[in-house]
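User: I'm writing a short report section on ligand binding and want a predicted complex to refer to. Could you take this sequence and nicotinamide-adenine-dinucleotide and write out the structure as tokens? A short remark afterwards would be nice.
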Amino acid sequence: MAQKTNPFENMLEQLDAAAEIAGLDKQDYITLRYPERELTVNFPVKMDDGTIRVFTGYRVQHSTIRGPAKGGIRFHPDVDMDETRALAAWMTFKCAVVDIPYGGAKGGVTVDPTGLSQGEIERITRGYTAKIADFIGPEKDIPATDVNTTQQMMGWIMDTYSTLAGVYSPGVVTSKPVEAGGSVGRKEATGLGVFFVTWELAKKLNMDLAKSTVAVQGFGNVGSNAAKFLYEAGAKIVAVSDVSGGLYCEDGLDIPALLEYVDKHPRRIIEGYQQEGVKTTDNHGILTCKCDFLVLAALENQITEEVAKEVQAKVVIEGANGPTTFAGDKVLEERGIIACPDILTNAGGVTCSYFEWVQNLQHHYWDIETVNSNLERIMVKAFNEVYETAEELKIPMRMAAYIVALKRLIAAQKIRGIFL
Ligand code: NAD
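Assistant: Sure. The structure tokens for the complex follow:
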């Protein structure tokens, strides 16, 4: 089969394959093959040198069957409508897998933020928010962070929306700084969720996480936190990469030292990190290195058909969204490599965003123990539902996750019926 790199087509292939396994009638899920609403915006921003640049942004609401639309905002040069559509759809399935009352959405601005000043990033964030302000809202569509967007930027989104609405509206966006209505634990939640799922899966596979080796692609929010929690559980993190390249150390990287190094680096990258026995490698070297668990925490379409043939990990943990292509997935399956799917694995972020939103709507804030124990409960329950479905139907976990989600979505759709 030809390699698919359009992420929305990749999503449709996964969806149709799961529906076929579950024997679902296409009529029952046809609405999920189309996003409900799509918005493209172009907005001017005054740059520091006085010139005006026009930026393009997107917001896609894939589904509101089970609740208001929910999904992050990405700042990246590759952001386009197809990518945003796919990411929005994955949010729908992800929220259904962990059974939180949200639909799915995603947004983004086509921009490379590298080299932009804080002032320019703030004006782009506010310009984009003003243009999508009618589309979003605490009961309609709630954005959050994603690739290259920070908690500070969520604070600006909250401020822009609240100012335009004339109402203090912390519930319009999640992943805000704690001082601006954010939840404790949100920053680490996706990585912690990745850890809970990896821990549970290791138990099922009779693998001792404390004696396992791990490679992590991407050392941003998700990758660095996943690495930290896995390291703290005793796993040996043998490789890490980010946009600047990769590091490999057979004896294991000193993750606390690497985290401190990245924290102090002006570009927050791993480049230049020194430790005895550390060798530099490239992105391909990370994806294909010898390890037990390969955690993907960068971007989509990383494990292609070709790369999948060379993967040496026993288990692929999808912290990123859509990191494995449909064809790549088939090769992993043929080779007996287990893929723990994105719509389950990285759902800790949106789950904690849900906690944040609940706290915002109630103006009542939780402590870290309440946040993390609820996160663990929801992630472990979702993991077990997916794992048991996979075992029962003798299918890969990805298909099982889609089936768990599809059943919930179809049930809600049937009860609501079709308007008109
Ligand atoms: P981030 O911007 O904090 O980090 C992304 C990391 O990937 C950075 O370290 C970057 O250098 C690295 N990277 C980019 N291109 C790369 C390449 N070609 N090779 C290797 N590394 C590369 O973003 P994030 O929030 O950590 O998101 C990572 C993934 O996780 C995305 O797919 C995102 O959609 C997904 N995700 C994020 C959250 C969240 O709460 N932040 C929740 C669910 C899913």
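A remark for your report: Residues 187-345 form a domain with the Rossmann fold fold (CATH 3.40.50.720). The pocket of nicotinamide-adenine-dinucleotide is lined by residues 145-148, 190, 217-223, 241-243, 283, 297-299, 319-321, 346, 349 (CB under 6 Å).
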